[in-house]
Specification:
Strand 18 and strand 19 form a beta hairpin. Helix content is 47%, strand content 14%. The chain is an alpha+beta fold and 697 residues long. It folds into three domains: 152 residues, Ubiquitin-like (UB roll), CATH 3.10.20; 366 residues, 2-Layer Sandwich (Creatine Kinase, Chain A, domain 2); 128 residues, Four Helix Bundle (Hemerythrin (Met), subunit A) (Up-down Bundle). The protein binds adenosine-5'-diphosphate and magnesium ion.
């Protein structure tokens, strides 16, 4: 058994190690940088770098790497060794402050959306001291931000850090106005719940669709799926338990607060949730968690699938982004307290969030859009593509009473009787759960539930932070010169709730009526990435990011182009993989099976005309017909992929074409393929079945 407190953070250059290993003055200077974002002196950086290096070498490191989050969707790292020639043919181990602070990776192969001039390939990585350095596989990892030589941001961390700063500034201004003068900083906190699938490595290796695209492109339904709900919170199988134990330990060593683990709804699906931390650290930790989930799986002969929809017909995987804001004085600003009706501060921040989600619902939808997540949103397993907010019965009633000038009567906390003597009665939380809502208030935080499982959470969080900062800054301007502040705050809260109540929906988001109701309310229903992304460069969105100094218009445009292009590329890879599977494996397999059937029928006939061959003949007819259709559809898909080039000048048209034409044909091809699978002997079928993959771990 691992001694958890002992291993926790053992691979992290955390505060404790800084205190132990840094001279007092250096520690203080570094702490100031971490807490207040003050720039760090090179002389201080030199001392820090040296201490980090000594510590890393003790843990067996030979290299260091600037670790960053480019626009590819995965993290990037380039390893340099610590060695430096000492002049006498020997080497010494060195690591300077300059090397700690700044790296110069070649940026030319990272997506830049056309920002980076091709003649200037250099990019910079800059140390982010607010996220601890750590050791992994013999390298010292330094979390960094990534920008082009000319300073344009090319990563996901920079906008997140800027947005946290913005939100802090605006929230502090509002709090000072309300008399909370001791608050000097407000932090965004995030706890991401991560879903994933585990399947057997041997099965995985036989499926090129999983290898190339992360999801199955063919596959008939297994006789059993998730209909019995017997997997959710079910007892964890030995092999999976061993994996989870290893995973927890590895994460704990890296200072990641892995807390909850359980089985999810779909067979072979699981979830891991950490205890929340600052948005920046939560992002780095979630990226690391996903990488380590995959690594540890290999050790157990498993593969961890983080794709949003690895299997058709059973739930896909998402990520719940629990988000809140709290002050440096320890107050959670989204905690309603015992009497929310008298808590104007809470109501003001709530109003800012309601207004933000309503006005920027398109951005929240865009930020969770991806080729993978297109399969989930609106498929009655994840929140719909329509963004709305759930406040719960109590808070919902309070907001309604404010809008209608009615007295608020708290329904109070409902006492639930368990009916079992040994179990203590517990109080039902007033913020009841509505699992169908994309953006739900859950007690003292909002849970943004529309994220796909593989998403980098930096994106939804910088969007959220920025839009809430914007609303708070508008509130501040409106309130700062008020003669009667109390009254002005109340008027503002009422006005905002009244004008933006359309975004609040406490009902069932999966119900077909909601789609119509949402339309009546004027809410957007953006069903796919291209549809959503088409709104990204709308003036109000550009203004939001530019005015809040998160990104320039050019940087935004770059992101827009990258998202669309990636989307088209992903579907393109899927289409090509399908074509290959169809031509090289499925068609030949079915042909062979039909030949066997034919030979059997002929053999029977040659024995005696009296032996019935109707079974073989029916199957031969059915499969032969399907094969004709399958081959035709494969050819159509091939043609469609070639034709895509006609659209490649305009990324929006390109992505839309992939969605509307290529993806649609893929669905058709799959339907025929899956239907052939159900009629073909498993001896001939070239791929492990859904049943084997989902129930074999
Ligand atoms: P559930 O599955 O019921 O939604 P979990 O306990 O699995 O609940 O996850 C809740 C997540 O919310 C955890 O990661 C938790 O740390 C996080 N969380 C709790 N309080 C806050 C907060 N103030 N800010 C951000 N995240 C929070
Ligand atoms: Mg949750």
């Amino acid at each position: 058994m691992a001694n958890v407190p002992e291993i926790f953070g053992s691979m992290v250059f955390n505060d404790q190690k800084m205190q132990e290993r840094l001279p007092k003055a250096t520690y203080k200077a570094l702490k100031k940088t971490i807490q207040n974002g003050e720039p760090l002196d090179l002389s201080v950086a030199n001392v820090v770098a040296n201490a980090m290096k000594d510590w890393a070498i003790e843990l067996g490191c030979t290299h260091y790497t600037h670790w960053f989050q480019p626009m590819t969707g995965v993290t990037a790292e380039k390893h340099d060794s610590f060695i430096a020639p000492s002049g006498d043919g020997q080497v010494i181990m060195e690591f300077s402050g300059k090397e700690l602070i700044k790296g110069e990776p070649d940026a030319s192969s990272f997506p830049s959306g056309g920002i980076r001039a091709t003649f200037e390939a250099r990019g910079y990585t800059t140390w982010d001291p607010t996220s601890y350095a750590f050791v992994r596989d013999g390298s010292l990892y330094i979390p960094t931000a990534f920008c082009s030589y000319t300073g344009e941001i090319l990563d996901k961390k920079t906008p997140l850090l800027r947005s946290m700063e913005r939100l802090s500034t605006e929230a502090v201004k509002v709090l000072h106005l309300l008399g909370k003068n001791d608050v000097t900083r407000v932090t965004t906190t995030v706890g991401p719940e991560q879903e994933y699938f585990l399947i057997d490595k041997e099965m995985y290796d036989q499926r090129e669709d999983l290898i190339f695209t992360g999801r199955t492109l063919f596959g008939a339904k297994a006789p059993k799926g998730q209909e019995l709900d017997d997997h959710y919170f079910g007892s964890i199988k030995t092999r999976v338990a061993a994996y989870m134990k290893d995973l927890d330990e590895e994460l704990w060593k890296l200072g990641i607060l892995a807390k909850t683990k359980h089985n999810e709804v779909a067979p072979s699906q699981h979830e891991l949730a950490p205890i929340f931390s600052t948005a920046n650290v939560a992002t780095d930790h979630n990226e690391l968690t996903m990488e380590i989930m995959k690594k540890i799986a290999e050790k157990h002969g498993l593969v961890c699938l983080l794709h949003e929809k690895p299997f058709a017909g059973v739930n896909g995987s998402g990520k719940h982004n629990n988000w809140s804001i709290s002050t440096n004085t320890g107050e959670n600003l989204l905690d309603p307290g015992k009497n929310p009706e008298n808590n104007t501060q809470f109501l003001l921040f709530l109003a800012a969030i309601v207004k933000a989600v309503h006005e920027y619902q398109d951005l929240l939808r865009i930020t969770v859009a991806s080729a993978g997540n297109d399969h989930r949103l609106g498929a009655n397993e994840a929140p719909p593509a329509i963004i709305s907010m759930y406040l719960g019965d109590d808070l919902g009633a309070l907001v309604e009473s404010i809008i209608n000038d009615k007295e608020y009567v708290s329904k109070g906390k409902v006492k639930m009787m368990t009916g079992v003597d040994v179990l203590a009665d517990f109080k039902k939380d007033t913020s009841d759960r509505n699992r169908t809502s994309p953006f739900a208030f859950t007690g003292n935080k909002f849970e943004f539930r529309a994220l796909g499982s593989s998403l980098n959470i930096a994106c939804p969080n910088y969007m959220l932070n920025t839009m809430v900062a914007e609303e708070l800054s508008q509130f501040y301007d409106e309130l700062k010169d008020a003669d009667n502040l109390d009254e002005a705050v109340k008027v503002l809260i009422k006005k905002v709730f009244t004008e933006h109540q359309a975004i609040i929906f406490n009902g069932d988001n999966y119900a077909p009526e909601w789609v119509e109701e949402a339309e009546r309310r004027g809410l957007l229903n953006l069903k796919s990435l291209p549809e959503a992304e088409a709104h990204f460069m709308d003036k109000k969105n550009v203004d939001l990011f530019v005015n809040n100094k998160i990104m320039t218009e050019q940087e935004l445009r770059a992101r827009y182009e990258i998202e669309l292009e990636n989307y088209a590329k992903q579907i393109n890879i899927e289409a090509l993989t399908m074509i290959e599977m169809a031509k090289k494996n499925i068609t030949p397999a079915v042909t062979s099976f039909v030949r066997e059937l034919t030979e059997t029928a002929l053999a029977k006939k040659s024995l005696s005309e009296a032996i019935p061959t109707v079974v073989e003949e029916d199957l031969i007819t059915s499969l032969s017909n399907k094969l004709v259709c399958f081959t035709k559809k494969t050819a159509e898909l091939e043609e469609a992929v070639i034709k895509a080039n006609d659209y490649s000048d305009d990324n929006l048209a390109y992505a839309t074409y992939y969605r509307e034409t290529v993806f649609a044909l893929m669905q058709e091809l799959r339907a025929v393929g899956d239907s052939m699978e159900t009629e073909t002997s498993s001896e001939y079928w070239p791929y492990p079945s859904y049943g084997e993959m989902l129930f074999n771990v």
